[in-house]
Amino acid sequence: MSNGIVLIIDDEEKLSRLLCRIITLEGFIVFTAPSLKAGAKILQKENIDIILCDVKLTDGNGVDFVKQIKPEYPSTEIILLTAYGNIADGVQAMKNGAFDYIAKGDDNDKIIPLLNKAIEKVQLQKRIEQLEKQVGKRYGFKNILGTSASILEAIKLAKKVAPTNANVLLLGETGTGKEVFAQAIHNASARAGKPFMALNCSSFSKELVESEIFGHKAGAFTGALKDKKGLIEEASSGTLFLDEIGEMSFELQSKLLRVIETSEFIKVGDTNTTKVDVRFIAATNRDLQQDVKESKFREDLFYRLNVFTISLPPLRERKKDITALAQYFLKIFSAKTNTAVETMSKEFLEHLQQHDWKGNTRELKNVMERAIILANGTELTLENLPLDLQATNFNSQKTLSAFDLASVEKIHIQRVLIHTKGNKTETAKLLNIGLTTLYRKIEEYGLA
To answer: Cα–Cα distance between 348 and 385 in angstroms, integer?
Structure first.
């Protein structure tokens, strides 16, 4: 396996052959070209990692060549070689994106260590690009599961707005996947590959949220020992996702409005403005229109964020999607925990279908992870569910009669067990029965 692929562009044939031999012995694959034009043709055909290029060639200048090709081949590192060390050329080469600039007399001592450093950078960049592709796939629209009309409508709207620069407001209960939608919108936009930054506005105090969003100057407050970039600046050219925007203080709402209107902001403790290019996606589980009426949220900010609104349905309104989501989580967590769980029993799925899912998809995800951890075989069964979910269908006329005394007793014992978190002694006391009697009834009703 090679260390990487190197292209030598030099019109001195003897030197080019010598470098080729030295570099090949170090495990690199090497191509050579006598001119910039010939080198450019090889670049188009081969996946070159590093270019060793002479500064003065018959058909051009290596310093200018760096500026020309670096935008097209950003992951390719370029080392310039010159027979005459020139500080001005060296400075310009680095500005143009060269990895380094060395005199040919230093080749024997410096060239191999320099190539090794350059290939490390190339390989790191390739790993980053691979991870970015994986993240893009993970947070794309294809990974938003569901065939119910409500979720398909939400996806349709998100796909429509994604290619634009319009601000988006995502509405929905906790756990409905607002951040997943925000990331999918970002990854389907022209800003894909640029930063996606996220902040939950309810997770910090007002002061900390301000510092997190806008950044601060050293000495702005106690503990601010050095300058810090805020998320708005970190997200420049990309997207800033502000979750739970309804929890943001009135004062910060005013500052955020200024950024949206002017594309500039002032860091905490600073007097100068900073320009940014950021797309905003906000989310909330609150009724912002009602908050505006009650003067809890700025009306002008609401209309700035409410350019395009998407409502995400709760899981109880898309129950036909539960099986597909459960199967997805089964696959994910089985692999994550290295278990052999492959299927779910009919009873297990029925209980999932009948649960209210107040925590929505997030709650389902947590339940599936817990169930897989508790599973003993290859199938998830009713016993792997939390006690409250095991009781989910006790109100269902399919399996229980509301007038059957045994059914009522079973439901009541189940509820008390849930209340005591499975503590049998405490349950027996609350039911005013003996512990032995409780164990007998637990066994009789299959509540173990």
So the answer is: 8
Asked, for residue 121, whether it belongs to a domain, the answer is yes
pLDDT over 60 at 136, yes or no: no
pLDDT band at 6 (very low <50, low <70, confident <90, very high): very high
Structural domain ending residue among the three candidates 260, 291, 313 = 313
Asked whether residue 282 is domain-assigned, the answer is yes
Going along 149-268, which residue ranges are E strands? 168-171, 196-200, 215-216, 228-229, 239-243, 264-266
Q: Helix H segments across 263-359? A: 288-293, 299-305, 322-337, 346-354
| Judgement on whether residues 289 and 176 belong to the same structural domain of the protein | yes
Query: Same structural domain for residues 295 and 162?
Result: yes
Q: Which two tokens stand for residue 294?
A: 């009650």
Q: What is the pLDDT of residues 14-34, one digit of tens each?
A: 888 988 998 998 889 999 999
Structural domain count of the chain: 4
Burial-class residue 256 by CB neighbours within 10 Å (0-12, 13-18, 19+).
buried
Is residue 311 within a helix (H) or strand (E), and if so which, with residue range? strand 308-311
Task: Report the alpha-carbon distance of residue 253 to residue 351 in Å, rounded.
Answer: 43
Please tell me which residue, 299 or 67, carries the higher pLDDT value: 299
Question: Do 167 and 285 share a domain, yes or no?
Answer: yes
Q: Is pLDDT of 220 > 80?
A: no
Tokens (6 digits) for 93: 């080469």
* Beta-sheet pairing, 29-33 with 5-9: parallel
pTM of full prediction above 0.70:
no
State how far the Cα of 282 lies from the Cα of 172, in Å rounded to an integer.
11
Same domain, 299 and 406: no
Do the beta carbons of residue 238 and residue 278 sit within 8 Å? yes
Q: Which of 278, 313, 348 is the last residue of a domain?
A: 313
To the nearest 5 percent, what fractions of the chain are helix, strand and coil? 50, 15, 35
Q: Are 93 and 63 in contact (CB under 8 A)?
A: yes
| Structural domain span for residue 420 | 400-448
- Alpha-carbon gap, residue 265 to 276, rounded angstroms: 8
DSSP 144-158: S---SHHHHHHHHHH
Computed on alpha carbons and rounded to an integer, the radius of gyration of the chain in Å comes to 31
In a domain, 350, yes or no: yes
pLDDT at 396 over 50: no
Instruction: Note the residue count of the chain.
Output: 448
Name the residue with tokens 């090889």: 42
